[in-house]
Write a structure and sequence with these properties.
The longest helix has 29 residues, at 202-230. The model has no long low-confidence stretch (mean pLDDT 85). The protein is globular, with a radius of gyration of 18 Å. It has helices at 3-16, 23-33, 40-48, 50-60, 69-88, 90-96, 100-121, 132-144, 152-162, 167-193, 202-230, 233-251. By secondary structure, the protein is mainly α.
Length: 259
Amino acid sequence: MTVIEAIIIAIVEGITEFLPVSSTGHMIITQELLGMKIDDFVKAFTVNIQFGAILSVVVLYWKRFFQSLQFYYKLFVAFIPAAVIGFLAGDFIDSMLESVVVVAVMLVLGGVVLVFVDKWFNKPAADQTVTYPTAFKIGLFQCIAMIPGVSRSAATIIGGMTQKLDRKTAAEFSFFLAVPTMFAAAGYKLMQNYQTITAENIDILLIGNAVAFVVAMIAIKSFISFLTKYGFRVFGYYRILVGLAILIMIALGYDLNIA
């Protein structure tokens, strides 16, 4: 992996991690378009630059992370479903990460959902308090995002909206929930693949995290404002177009499966 490739992948991660478009799916597609050789370090890099994105949430919302212990208890309750399923089905999930077809199909299906989700669930309650049952149900929705091409952000925000949270409250809880979820996933992968990080490539990993941090901060600020004003529909159309374009390329004989 070159420095330029690392910066491009980190920019994609920073932009897409908190948008409802699937960061994993976009990084898989970007790696293919760049013609990258997918070795163990690249796989570790793709996961571990999430540390930079995580830090952006903590920096932007640092006051919220010191408000009360209940804040952390609720995040833990929401985190449990993904932790359990991730542990039990980790190998199967990893096997799907190499399929661009899976990513493309889920981009399309998820896009269709986003086109209509504001009509289905945009009926917020007067009380926007996230309760423990609400947190757990949002955590169940997060499990859907283990399928490549399903956005973690979209799944959890929609999960919140089904519990009558408004778009802004649901999006912010989704960002908060990303911290333990992404930290656990990135930390686990780091322990599995620490031997791939050497003195020769650690600078690439540090650069990737720095770029992801800066870009994610900008993306979060922009997304909250856009989502509150316009909703999900534009993201839905974008997902459908990208997914269909990939499926058409595959149908025309392009080999887009990452090996």
